[in-house]
Automatic annotation (TrEMBL):
<dbReference type="GO" id="GO:0010181">
    <property type="term" value="F:FMN binding"/>
</dbReference>
<dbReference type="InterPro" id="IPR029039">
    <property type="entry name" value="Flavoprotein-like_sf"/>
</dbReference>
<dbReference type="GO" id="GO:0046872">
    <property type="term" value="F:metal ion binding"/>
</dbReference>
<dbReference type="GO" id="GO:0016491">
    <property type="term" value="F:oxidoreductase activity"/>
</dbReference>
<dbReference type="InterPro" id="IPR008254">
    <property type="entry name" value="Flavodoxin/NO_synth"/>
</dbReference>
<dbReference type="InterPro" id="IPR016440">
    <property type="entry name" value="Rubredoxin-O_OxRdtase"/>
</dbReference>
<feature type="domain" description="Flavodoxin-like">
    <location>
        <begin position="251"/>
        <end position="389"/>
    </location>
</feature>
<dbReference type="InterPro" id="IPR045761">
    <property type="entry name" value="ODP_dom"/>
</dbReference>
<dbReference type="Pfam" id="PF19583">
    <property type="entry name" value="ODP"/>
</dbReference>
<dbReference type="InterPro" id="IPR001279">
    <property type="entry name" value="Metallo-B-lactamas"/>
</dbReference>
<dbReference type="InterPro" id="IPR036866">
    <property type="entry name" value="RibonucZ/Hydroxyglut_hydro"/>
</dbReference>
<dbReference type="Pfam" id="PF00258">
    <property type="entry name" value="Flavodoxin_1"/>
</dbReference>
<comment type="similarity">
    <text>In the N-terminal section; belongs to the zinc metallo-hydrolase group 3 family.</text>
</comment>
<dbReference type="GO" id="GO:0009055">
    <property type="term" value="F:electron transfer activity"/>
</dbReference>
<protein>
    <submittedName>
        <fullName>Flavodoxin domain-containing protein</fullName>
    </submittedName>
</protein>
Length: 405
């Protein structure tokens, strides 16, 4: 079995999961659970893997060293995809210390109910000597759990960043320079959009903190996807754009429909956007997964949402999407809503109500059309698209755009 080296005496010992397709509602094409082994006077394992991959983790460790020789186990994050292996690993290695944050200690007890494990709680800035090398810790609360922390290997300038800077990306290769940059960046974008958007204020604070500390980062080793060794600055730069909600000047028309009336409206809205010189994408929720739509929402500057009314409410796929999007809290965009209806037409008002909870400007009160739209009503849809386009352009030009509702 090949030994995968990050640097001298530092190895990747994780597992590639080619099977998982759903990660709590986020569609993925497999992922990796990265764990890292440092051989020094104090042999250290950083993070473990999801439960079913415990055997593979041990196998990879044994390929390098007897697991019993591991002295320290660092738990950067307690979520099961990184700690599921812990009970078995603890039996196998019996370490001198389980290093975790204060919140990590609490979460470990609440997950595994083992007060007898040799916890060693660290706080930000604390250092532990391994022999030749030094580990230093940085608590990253709510990125994305209260227990999350980073571990920095000073001499080698490697930042083990837990879930941050990760991507659900399964590949035979382990480093950024060995895979397609387009696919990698798309997966990293999808990861931020679906896991971190709501924690953007924490990401902003963290990036400022890391900059202030002037940490030289030669390698960024997250717990999912590849290790960023050729250009770690690229993903840090992307995070600084995403966490400030910088828009790309593009619009999304996202809709669902029963008998295609709302679809006709969506296509006319898109025409209006185009007439206004705005690039757009059309997402029919019947064929697009919520997490793929969310990936585009992250960078889009305008959202136009369409649903007809079903049983005095929105269509179920729009409910699903908006509940999902509301939780992730995208911000700094303009939006409008539309939909066909028969007699009561509540869907548009309901979509507006959800948008109003977010830091997103409603630039139109919403367009409703009874049953099947005719030529003039489709013209109103085109006009709606133009209105959204103009509001978005004003926002991009730095003008203050007020909500109409
Ligand atoms: C099962 C069902 C329930 C409906 N419930 C409502 C309703 O509560 N209020 C309303 O205004 N229209 C209701 N409608 C009418 C639709 O909103 C209307 O047919 C609309 O044109 C459908 O647009 P679409 O083709 O974009 O789905 C309902 C239609 C169906 C099939
Ligand atoms: Fe996590
Ligand atoms: Fe994770």
């Amino acid at each position: 079995m090949r030994k995968i080296k990050l640097a001298n005496n530092i190895y990747w010992v994780g597992a590639v999961d080619w099977i998982t397709r759903d990660f709590h509602g986020y569609s993925i094409n497999g992922t990796t659970y990265n764990a890292f082994l440092i051989i020094d006077d104090k042999v250290t394992l950083i993070d473990t893997v999801k439960g079913p991959y415990t055997g593979e983790l041990l196998h990879r460790i044994r390929n390098i060293i007897d697991p019993k020789k591991i002295d320290y186990l660092v738990v950067n994050h307690v979520e099961m995809d990184h700690s599921g292996a812990l009970p078995e690993i603890m039996e196998a290695i019996n370490p001198e210390k389980v290093i975790c944050s204060k919140m990590g200690h609490k979460a470990l007890l609440q997950h595994f109910h083992r007060p007898d494990w040799p916890y060693h709680v660290v706080t930000s800035g604390e250092e532990i000597r391994l022999g030749q090398r030094t580990l230093s810790f940085l608590e990253t609360r709510m990125l994305h759990w209260p227990d999350s922390m980073f571990t920095y290997l000073k001499e080698d300038q490697i930042l083990f960043s837990s879930d941050a800077f990760g991507a659900h990306f399964a590949s035979s290769e382990r480093f950024d320079d060995e895979v397609s940059q387009d696919i990698l960046m798309r997966e990293a974008t999808k990861y931020y959009a679906n896991i971190l958007t709501l924690y953007s204020p924490f990401v902003q604070k963290l990036l400022a903190q890391v900059q202030e500390m002037q940490l030289p980062i030669k390698m960024l080793a997250p717990d999912h996807g590849v290790v960023w060794r050729s250009n770690p600055a690229a993903i840090i730069e992307a995070y600084s754009r995403w966490c400030t909600h910088q828009g790309n000047g593009k619009a999304l028309v996202i809709y669902d429909t029963m008998w295609d009336s709302t679809k006709m409206m969506a296509r006319a809205v898109a025409e209006g956007l185009h007439e206004q010189g705005v690039e757009y994408k059309l997402f029919d929720l019947q064929v697009n997964h919520r997490s793929d739509v969310m990936t585009d929402v992250l960078e889009a500057s305008a959202l136009v949402l369409g649903s007809s009314t079903l049983n005095n409410g929105m269509l179920p796929r729009m409910v699903d999407f908006l509940m999902y999007m509301r939780g992730l809290r995208p911000a700094k965009k303009v939006a409008a809503t539309f939909g066909s209806y028969g007699w009561s037409g509540e869907a548009v008002g309901m979509m507006n109500a959800i948008i109003k909870e977010l830091d997103i400007v409603l630039c139109h009160k919403g367009l409703k059309v009874p049953y099947v739209p005719e030529h003039g009503q489709l013209g109103q849809c085109v006009e709606l698209g133009r209105t959204v386009g103009r509001a978005m352009q004003a926002m991009m030009a730095g003008e203050k755009v007020e909500s109409v509702l």
